Amino acid sequence: MKQQESKKALIAMSGGVDSSIAAFLLKKQGFDCTGITMKLFDNEDIGAGREKSCCSLEDVKHARNTADSMGIPFYVNNFTEDFKKKVIGRFIEAYKSGATPNPCIDCNRYIKFEKLLFRAKQLNMDYFATGHYARIEYNEKTGRYLLKKAIDKIKDQSYVLYAMTQEQLAHTLFPLGTLRKSEVRDIAKKLGFTNADKQDSQDICFVQNGCYAEFIEHYLNHTSESGNFIDMQGNILGRHKGIIRYTTGQRRGLGISLNKPMYVHSKNIENNTVTLCEDKELFASSFEAADFNWIAFDGITSPIHVKAKIRYNQTEQWATATQTPHNTVHIEFDEPQRAITTGQAAVLYDEDMVIGGGTISVIL
Fold first, then answer.
1. Are 250 and 243 within 8 A, CB to CB?
2. How high is the mean pLDDT of the chain?
3. Inter-residue contact 146 to 174 (CB < 8 Å)
4. Has domain 282-363 been given CATH number 3.50.50.60?
5. For residue 326, what pLDDT band results from cuts at 50, 70 and 90?
6. Nearest alpha-carbon partner for 311 in 100, 124, 86, 126
7. How far is the C-alpha of 307 from the C-alpha of 348, rounded, in Å?
8. How far apart are CA 148 and CA 145, in angstroms?
9. What is the distance between the terminal CA atoms of the chain, rounded to a whole angstrom?
10. Could you give the count of Cα atoms lying within 13 Å of 149 in the half-sphere of its Cβ?
11. What is the Cα 306 distance to its own chain's centre?
């Protein structure tokens, strides 16, 4: 993508306050802005009413009105087929294989920073921008673009952006990275934006009411097969209602009565069993992360001591990362961690800088 003085920016606008203020700030900075909203799915396909999802007509209306109020062009692009294959499809396959995925990462990877960045190039834009809370910096000594945490640590979204490439980082803008969410809402209120107090969207936009199993069964038109709950010794404890209904560390919703608190330890797809354990048995120290993407450098030739984060709301913990074959990384925590879960992302940090990340594939 060429660089030029016009500073044209294509801005992903969801109808929410974050993307609206991102557009406002870039226009204020002198960028020639164009807004774009993605149509990701048909509400009927996911069992939702017209007004219940982030792809609703109301959200498109909010985004269009905001763009119109700022005098910037606005487009709606249909990515339903790509989203169905690369986000929803991967989400369902991961659950069917016993993993617990984070589809927001796939959406960022395959839709926002692949499809929309490509669209920005088609429109001869210099940059693509979003309302994510993260920062991008260029290191002149290494010649690499760095992904860093947002100033607002509560809203920081660097964890779900670990898959970004150097090419993507070079042509992406995160205008909100140096602001706190409260400041963003204050700006929106002063501007009179109707979405100033709009509630943040749910983490997984295509799953209604947070019930993943119901979504999967509706989408596939197939009911998950019941099977046995077993303990760590293989003793049968009761019947489960389908493997897709459970995730590592889960206690609530098991639907059986036991004489002590028990948690989901693991799932066996071949035998259709869910293994339960006591809380102390949920702790593990090491795992492998596959499909690893390095950001701070090309890779490592010797072990490094860093901080690792294994779920979105977790505080990162000290660990040693070692490169292994086939683009996987072995990660060993200094102290055992609770409920390490396959399918989740493992992201490595050096203070506020993202070193890289991958998908937890094997717990050791």
1. no
2. 92
3. no
4. no
5. confident
6. 100
7. 6
8. 10
9. 43
10. 17
11. 21
Tokens encoding 186: 């204050």
Please give the pLDDT value at position 191. Answer: 92
Fold classification of 224-277 is: SH3 type barrels. (2.30.30)
AA letter at 317? Q
The residues annotated with a catalytic role in the active site are 107, 205
What's the CA gap between 342 and 287, in Å, rounded?
Answer: 9
Residue 60's H or E segment, with its range, is helix 57-70
Letter string b/e over residues 24-42, b meaning 16 or more CB atoms within 10 A of that residue's CB: bbbbeeebebbbbbbebbe
Contact 188, 181 (CB under 8 A): no
**CATH superfamily of the 8-206 domain:** HUPs (3.40.50.620)
Which helix (H) or strand (E) segment holds residue 21: the answer is helix 17-28
Q: Write the single-letter amino acid at 339.
A: A
Residue type, 132: H
Cα–Cα distance measured from residue 196 to residue 209, given in angstroms and rounded to the nearest whole number: 24
Q: Do 282-363 and 224-277 have the same topology in CATH?
A: no
What is the amino acid identity at position 204?
A: I
Q: What is the distance between the alpha carbons of residues 234 and 224, in angstroms, rounded to a whole number?
A: 22
Q: Which of 76, 81, 74, 34 is nearest to 55 (CA)?
A: 76
pLDDT band at 234 (very low <50, low <70, confident <90, very high): very high
Q: Which residues share a beta bridge with 107?
A: none
- What residue spans define the domains of the chain? 8-206, 224-277, 282-363
| Predicted pLDDT of residue 4 | 47
Mean pLDDT of 33-50: 74
What's the rounded Cα separation, in Å, for the pair 35 and 61?
A: 12
| C-alpha count within 13 angstroms, C-beta hemisphere, residue 263 | 14
| Interatomic CA distance for residues 218 and 125, integer angstroms | 40
